[in-house]
Amino acid sequence: MRFILRRAGFFLVTLWAAVTLNFFLPRMMPGNPALALVGKFHGRLTSQELVSLENLFGVNTKASLPVQYVHYLGDIATGNFGTSLYFYPASVSRVVLDAIPWTLGLVGVTTILAFVLGTGVGIVSAWRRGTWLDGLVPPVFVITSAIPYFWVGMMFILIFGIRLQWLPYTFGYDPTLTPGLNPAFIGNVIEHAILPALALLLTTIGTWILTMRNNMVTTLAEDYVRMARAKGLPGRRIMLDYAARNAILPNLTGFAMSLGFVVGGAILIEYVFDYPGVGYMLLQAVENEDYPLMQALFLLITVAVLVAILLADIATAIFDPRTRSAG
Amino acid sequence: MSDPRVPEPVLEVSGLSVEYVLDRGSVRAVDDVSFTVGRGEFLGIVGESGCGKSTLLFAIAQLLAPPARVDGGSVRFQGTNLVGLTDRQLAATRWRDLSVVMQSAMNALNPVKSIGAQFKDALRAHGVRRSDEIAARSAEVLRMVGIDSAHLRSYPHQLSGGMRQRAMIAMAMLFTPELVIMDEPTSALDVVAQRSLMVQIKELQESLGFAIIFVTHDMSLISHFSDRLLVMYAGQVSELGATRSVFDAPRHPYTQGLLEAFPSIRGAKVPLKGIPGSPPNLAIIPNGCRFHPRCPMAFDRCSEQAPDLYERDGSLVRCLLYDDAAAGSATQQAGGRADA
Amino acid sequence: MAATTATIQPARPLGGQAARRLWRAVGRNRKATAGAVLLLFFCFLALFPGLIAHDSPTAEIYGRSMGVSAAHLFGTTAYGQDLFAQVVWGTRQVLIIAFGAGLASTAIAAIIGVTAAYLGGAWDGVLNLITDVLLVIPLFPLLIVIAAYVQNSGTLVLITVLTLTGWSYTARQLRSQALSVRSRDFLEAARVRGERAVYIIGVEILPTMTSLLVAAFLTNALYAVLFASSLQFIGLGDPNATSWGTMLYWAENNEALQTGQYLWAVAPGVCIAALGTAFALLNYAFDEIGNPALRPVRKIRSKRVRPARS
């Protein structure tokens, strides 16, 4: 329990760091970029919207930096991220909330799949060391880990979308259909999700396979695995109960760490496929200098990663009795 | 070679060799080792680090992992040769008739499973499935080593070092096997705990009647408990005989050197002598006798001819000094020292 | 674990000896040699692009969107530039970023990681916290946000930004390694001699971590290549620079895939993948060199066991 509390404390610190970064970055840049922004939108915003914009970026305020910071924190805490500039007059929160389900679906499902499949292949590959499977796995996935995510997406579009015309490759669904919880729409959504999901899966699975395999190999050399053999336990039980259960523990924390990279990959994949998720919105915001939206999305992504890490830590605490006692 | 007391040995190791297959060629860690273990016998195997004793143990239990492999010889356990059998073929005998105790219980016990769960694994793997039987037997073996059965629910890291070791020994007793192989189980403990663990092991052996092969580097400790001693050097058997005989009248110069390095509590104060030099790199074995570069009694032939095991007064010694065929100046020279 | 050899631990592994052993290990490892050859090939391209591609990469003088021909090995872009020349000349910028950011982040990671391990206590806690926080904050979105504010990042800015954000992962690795080295005897000897911390860290600890440092550099270089080209791809680099990432940016902008100009997108992508593979192969090989347990195991086919001699 103390372990969880300590981790939660760490997250608060990280969250604070991210929020503070968000606060200081635009103020640190040469020639406050927000200044130009405010000038551009001056005529079109209500005074309230203008004030919140100024709070976020510290322009035109006579308040000192610490006071700005406090206002800023207050705004963040109450969920007031201001109005989106590109999607005006929609509020930033609205844009963000609309984008979340798409990313959750695409990235969430794909990541879990990649983790499960990747870990499984890694376990078997290490168990069958010296066979063709294990010989093939490392080089193949060394290569896939070096290919840029977005390029895989582009190739998928080229091969399956343009040349073979098997699957659609833009947006989340056919815009001529009306969204709703009917089978036609859902089927269409799934159809649109296949290519980006496969691209994401292919590029991220390599890390899981390799790290799990390496962890397994180290674990298989441990004395307790040898002991399990000495006890005459059946092979599968040794592989799963003695080796994999221990090998996966560092992977769980690693899972959380590499979520950062999954996020990066997701952003690029969404961009290439015009998939209306959080990553796509982030890049739209960047392209169109919609800084309020950009900031909010950055914070959202950070929070999501933190939550995932916390979940992984809880899972470690559940599966590793040593952390429970150590506290 | 077999002990005249028992009709049929529990274990018969003949010419066992183990090599490590490395990139730059293979290295023989165990070279042509032969010995037997009778029913209920306590055999101690001693030697320096790196002499191959642990490798020998794992080879006997068929627990080697690549790049190590058995290169020659046989291991007859209750009549069946274990060498070459697959894990599946060995599964039935394992633990039921032959169990293993390792050096560090912290490393040998699965850290994420409770003690009871690990006992259960072994029991279920050999056909004991009813939970009441499992619980009863688990509690019983723990009682044998003096641990409360409440600890079945504990995880390895929650027990003290001594308790862990005893729990591991209890686990080895689950099926009261014929032979228990122990790899330095006392090395990680302090001196007092060592002695009490050894006493416990000896008591268990006497009441349950199993044979023990006990590997250690601590010759003085083991000499109080073992029936016979096997001294290993550089992968080979250098001396093998009844404990009292080897301990009180060591024949091989290496054994003599080992004993002279241990102080005796009783008796006159003598300056301790270590053995100069270090064990050979097994990839580059010296010509002739492997010990000759460090041997105070080496003579010319020692660097040319590799000695076989020669019998002397019921013990086997791998030393040219005891090669009766080579009579002459060599034996004359060494005659006085051999019985020191 | 069963000890098999009793070799005496050297008093302190000498730096030069370690480097030579490393070199030999590289030669023997197939993955390492493949990766090294690939990397050297790209270095050659970066150093002497003019020898391979005779056209200027930026001159828009050729016909637009031409296909593959003897004059234009990869065809031309929609702006009439020779694609082959672009790919070859683009190598330079990519490698500069890879080596620049790679070396710089490795240096920072080494300093912070080893210092944290060496100093221990409160300092360790503080440095660790900073490292962990930076590790957890998702890197790519952070890069995007920073690059968005800076606008039009040239090579130097890219390297700086990548370095400042990318050192945390390898810092952690180097710290764990340094922790295990910290208690060894030769360090005690140095401390007793009265050597200053900087000396101990620089001269005694770091040389023992050579293979890990190389592995860290390779990791950082790989991610520098991938992140830099990703940033350039979404338009946050300098669009007028000649680099593989910017080529992909222009290809995407001109709908190269939809209009049949495949090579525009395929060629630079393959190059990024190839260079990345070179780093990844070398990295994997160094993992194996550093941790012998991971080395490929030849499945020992059960040779017929010789019967006992006696």
List the helices and strands and how they pair.
The complex is a heterotrimer of chains A (about 325), B (about 350) and C (about 300).
Chain A: H1 2-28, H2 33-41, H3 47-57, H4 65-77, H5 92-127, H6 132-146, H7 149-163, H8 183-220, H9 223-230, H10 235-273, H11 278-287, H12 291-319, H13 321-326
Helix pairs in contact in A: 1-12, 5-8, 5-10, 5-12, 6-8, 7-8, 7-10, 8-10, 9-10, 10-11, 10-12, 11-12
Chain B: E1 11-22, E2 25-37, E3 42-46, H1 53-60, E4 68-77, E5 80-81, H2 87-90, E6 98-101, H3 105-108, H4 115-125, H5 131-144, H6 161-172, E7 179-183, H7 191-208, E8 211-216, H8 219-223, E9 228-233, E10 236-242, H9 243-248, H10 253-260, E11 310-312, E12 315-317, H11 329-338
Parallel strand pairs in B: 3-8, 3-9, 6-7, 7-8
Antiparallel strand pairs in B: 1-2, 1-4, 4-5, 9-10, 10-12, 11-12
Chain C: H1 15-28, H2 30-47, H3 49-52, H4 83-119, H5 121-136, H6 139-150, H7 155-166, H8 168-182, H9 185-193, H10 197-205, H11 210-233, H12 244-253, H13 262-290
Q: Describe it for me?
A:
The complex is a heterotrimer of chains A (327), B (340) and C (310). Chain A is mainly α and 327 residues long. Helices cover 78% and strands 0% of the residues of chain A. In chain A, helix 5 packs antiparallel against helix 10 (235-273), helix 5 (92-127) runs parallel beside helix 12 and helix 8 crosses helix 10 (235-273). With 340 residues, chain B is α/β, with parallel strands linked by helices. Chain B has 2 domains: 1-97 and 176-270, P-loop containing nucleotide triphosphate hydrolases (Rossmann fold); 108-174, no CATH class. Chain B is built from 11 helices and 12 strands. Chain B has an 8-stranded mixed β-sheet with strand order 6-7-8-3-9-10-12-11. In chain B, strands 2-1-4-5 form a 4-stranded antiparallel β-sheet. The radius of gyration of chain B is 21 Å and the shape is globular. Chain B starts with 10 loop residues before the first strand and ends with a helix. Chain C is mainly α. Chain C has a single domain, classed as MetI-like (MetI-like fold). Chain C has 13 helices and no strands. Chain C has helices at 15-28, 30-47, 49-52, 83-119, 121-136, 139-150, 155-166, 168-182, 185-193, 197-205, 210-233, 244-253, 262-290. In chain C, helix 4 (83-119) runs parallel beside helix 7 (155-166) and helix 12 (244-253) packs antiparallel against helix 13 (262-290). Chain C is elongated and about 75 Å long. In chain C, 45% of the residues are buried. Residues 1-13 and 300-306 of chain C have low confidence and may be disordered.
